[in-house]
Amino acid sequence: MQDPRLSFVNCLSPAGMHRMAYWEWGDPANPRVVVCVHGLSRTGRDFDRLARRLSATYRVVCPDLVGRGQSDWLSNSSFYTVPQYVSDMTTLIAKLDPRELHWVGTSLGGLVGMALGGAAATARRNRVPTAGQRDLDADAGLRLNRIVLNDVGPHISPPSLLRIGQYVGQPLSFDSFAAARDAVKTSAATFGPHTDQEWDELTRYVYVARDGRWVKHYDLGISTSLGAGNPMTMLAGEQLLWQAYEALDCPILIVRGAQSDLLTRHTVSEMLSRRRQARAIEFEGVGHAPTLMSDAQIEPVLQFLLDQPISHPTMSP
């Protein structure tokens, strides 16, 4: 079975330098790249099954966001924010130097993709060539060719943030892997039905052995941003995300778990009405968020990235 390569890129935050880890699949010289970015408390290894399927066609890169997995932790937890993640991703993409760039983002990873893709599209539209650059390609610079937003949109339901915040900052530890897996099955019950092997995979990289205990892989400080904003700040943040979403100039696939408490059908309808290039699909029996582990969930994503007809029924505004 194919295993990924582990690499690192040096990034900068107001707190100083840090290394961000990323897992890479496929031919490292392939200019066709898919970047897969995980949710708040997960790791890049969430995409192992999807990456194996994609790696025959693409170079697939799955980073561990700073503060998670094999990446460094920040000395100041107040910088665990979307702008910092966007900065880190910009550094990573510059190193990858892709000719074609697709994005698959689950939850937080989707927010980062929206912010990055929207900012890049806005920068291209506003770019004014200087003297001697008049033949410069108008599309030069960072560009997302396609983006998959997995169970996330510009509006995030407040009750879902409350639910997530209740477990992300808890310093849990267990005396066995089996006990850690049981905890994941409880906290991630909204992922929907999975086999025992799949639950093992969903646990293996989010609980790590340390001093005889199984502990969370991430800096508990990543939860700081969840409670940092007052209602007005959160509203302003949502408005910025809508602006970023509307600025996206590439095809968009919105994936929703039918029982999701984070991405509502109303939000999906609004997203579809605001972007003509957007399509949406929904998976029954799943809440927040589809894990993209089963063939039934992988196939529509693969078809979308390859610009093929999507076999899964789409949603209407």
Walk me through the structure.
With 317 residues, the chain is of the alpha/beta class. It has a single domain, classed as Rossmann fold (3-Layer(aba) Sandwich). Helix content is 35%, strand content 20%. It has 9 helices and 11 strands. It has an 8-stranded mixed β-sheet with strand order 1-2-4-3-5-6-10-11, sandwiched between helices. Strand 1 (5-13) and strand 2 (16-25) form a beta hairpin. Helix 3 (108-126) packs across helix 7 and helix 5 crosses helix 6. Residues 135-139 have low confidence and may be disordered.
β-strand percent reads: 15-25%
What is the helix/strand order?
A: EEEHEHEHEHEHHEEHEHEH
**Silhouette:** globular
Looking across the biggest beta sheet, what order are the strands in?
Answer: 1-2-4-3-5-6-10-11
Query: How helical, in percent, are the residues?
Result: 25-40%
Q: What would you call the structural class?
A: alpha/beta
Oligomer state equals single chain
Uncertain residue segments: 135-139
Can you tell me the CATH architecture?
3-Layer(aba) Sandwich
* Biggest sheet layout: 8 strands, mixed
| Number of separate structural domains | 1
Termini separation: 41 Å
Overall average residue pLDDT: 92
Summed up, the helix count is: 9
Radius of gyration: 19 Å
- Would you tell me which CATH topology applies? Rossmann fold
CATH class: Alpha Beta
